[in-house]
Amino acid sequence: MSATTFHETHDEAVAGVEDGSTVLIGGFGMAGMPVDLVDALIRQGASDLVVVSNNAGNGDTGLAALLAAGRVRRMVCSFPRQSDSWVFDGLYRSGRIELEVVPQGTLAERMRAAGAGIGAFFCPTAVGTPLAEGKETREIEGRTYVLEHPIRGDYALIGAHVADAMGNLVYRKTARNFGPVMAAAARTTIAQVSRVVPVGGLDPEHVVTPGIYVDRVVAAPGSGPAAGDLQQQEQA
Amino acid sequence: MSATTFHETHDEAVAGVEDGSTVLIGGFGMAGMPVDLVDALIRQGASDLVVVSNNAGNGDTGLAALLAAGRVRRMVCSFPRQSDSWVFDGLYRSGRIELEVVPQGTLAERMRAAGAGIGAFFCPTAVGTPLAEGKETREIEGRTYVLEHPIRGDYALIGAHVADAMGNLVYRKTARNFGPVMAAAARTTIAQVSRVVPVGGLDPEHVVTPGIYVDRVVAAPGSGPAAGDLQQQEQA
Amino acid sequence: MTLERTDRGPLGRAEMAAVVARDIPSGSYVNLGIGQPTLVADHLPEGSGVVLHTENGMLHMGPAATGGPDDPIDPDLTNAGKVPVTELPGASYFHHADSFAMMRGGHLDVCVLGAFQVAAGGDLANWHTGAPDAIPAVGGAMDLAIGAKQVLVMMSLFAKDGSPKLVEACTYPLTGAGCVDRVYTDLATFRVGTGPDGRGVEVLETWGTTYDELAARLDVPLVRA
Amino acid sequence: MTLERTDRGPLGRAEMAAVVARDIPSGSYVNLGIGQPTLVADHLPEGSGVVLHTENGMLHMGPAATGGPDDPIDPDLTNAGKVPVTELPGASYFHHADSFAMMRGGHLDVCVLGAFQVAAGGDLANWHTGAPDAIPAVGGAMDLAIGAKQVLVMMSLFAKDGSPKLVEACTYPLTGAGCVDRVYTDLATFRVGTGPDGRGVEVLETWGTTYDELAARLDVPLVRA
To answer: Active site includes D55?
Structure first.
């Protein structure tokens, strides 16, 4: 039913992504970026995608390569312009990609709202700026807010650290970033992890993303379900 | 400035609560209930309080004793009626306390909104029921939502498991419940904990409530800052 | 086709729980409401992979704690009814806003709730009798009613005074509108909210009675499954 | 009273950072924006108890990682500018929605941001030059601008073309309206949004210039502190 499935290859993990899908892609710069899943998505071939991610690709790999392959119709992000975002820059300047810029916290909160069943929310960010133009505003207790709507994903591709066999996830340091939010906001969440440990291998107090939000897991090449020093795995 | 302060006694920790304050009190039944802080609040004497808590007191101690002392003008909760809620029942039936019943998830989300700077949110819960009467509703993508507003606390009294000397908190099992949400929703958050450990005593990956949300900490009598087997403390 | 089991009497409480458990797909994430629905856990088959959620912040809750040496009572580990419970391997804990985001966000596959009344269109009344002297208390019932992908109700079909609890329109205050999918009772299992107007009731199976007998006793637009 | 320091020239970048650091109360929770504001960290005194927040999900961030044996580069631990950093004892990690809830919810005491322009009423423009061919990129600037209890701006007072960056009204697209509290520049420190109409500018201190010289060069309603 909702049980998490475990996959041998990244290609298997991204099977079935339909043309036109909205794909949430984790990571802040390269930290937490599910590079292997994005590479597999390029091979899988889905096109006309809406991609939601904090940045719009770095260098020529990962998300930048997906963009370069012409698979993305629309990019929703907070910060597309980086020193090494030449792929996106070129597509944008030549009018070959749509861009929706969303303040970073509003981007996170709109996905959080999708996962939490919130229909819309009044947000103080961006009031009086071009990013609030055309949006409904309301004064509440003397402060002005703009109405923001959820961002739902058909798929989320995220990078995590360790999964247990229930699909529970933990992350490492600032690579956590958008992972937990996107996992809850997508219909199908696909996680690439460094390692899979048996049930009982993660302390229930330390789980960050419960397995209910995780549909498919693929471990990095060469790793797989294994017992061992779990405490160390969790904290490595 | 915002640095967490550590107190020897529960009485010291609740000093200064003003008459008329809104006080968020953690716990779900007795799990996570900051009983010693509530007892200290009774001794402190603040009255005309608005109390926000999931239940309306059990037996004759803790929150029930605060109610019995006539200090609470208004109770905001999801489930006042329990087998041992005779104190509240008596006050309510004799018209000596106001009651606002809020669905449990809406109660949590309204406090979450307060802590997260959200002005209001459209919530699907309670649509078409008496608890949505008089509230603004809106249809969004074919579903009806009711507009809910934040619940802010002047004070939050919460129970946690271990604090470090930065005020970071971890909880135990289902005693976590409302603690993290209330800590962020109140102007002044006061936590009672089993133990205080030195800085570095909690794994940064495992902190549930960062110290930024914690203003005052008091350890149970007989405990205090101590080194030791932190791993065990964290998981005990 | 409606299955009429006239070779036996109505279901007892444990039998009702077993019928509900039978219909929960393996691997589901499930919330069992306070009271009778709690019994469903005892009837989930070994290896079903069903994961139980409790609203007070936990996935993969185990059975009630017995207080034995391997199974101590832990006041920090309770279910939604404040009963001490246990933790299964693979569990996780989270705070209340996250727990109800999970419910409201539609991530639970199934919830099982008790009811005072269910209407043909799927309206649920289970939190308030409407009596003027009753102290209102809703808990997490409204969040579950609108949140779970499938809302199953478990109740006796008739109240103690003989009045049916499956009705054309609820007379008690609502918990949720049009939210119930199936109703499991001692006498029959129903699918509600069916048909072109969403106000039809299919009889899926009966216990110790027949479709025709039910149709005579209920004032709702029944159809055979 | 406005302090006029005419015994020296304007502040250099590091000196500006030191002045900002001087004004941050000990024990504050602080977010330092990308670019120049990052320098402030180097000037916080030992034992200040200031805790640095980074928007990508961390409290108590340490200095940039040097790549030495005790200080390895960890690609999973970066600041908002994607520069590898370190972790101080007592740190904590959290996800992006929680990190920005912390910002938006008003829990940070101070943030320090760079700016293209600041208006007398406290409007901030720091994300977009308005040039038609520029690719818009806002990051977390708008969230910080409206979220922190005190918003400090650190910038040169005049642009390269000599035009003032402290203005009556911003000509660049806004990041936030009426959100800035103080502006730290090479020539002076200002409090903005003062006075009965909230559009006054107090000169707190000058560096290598006088109040009167500034008043002659700026087209905003200055007053002495």
So the answer is: yes
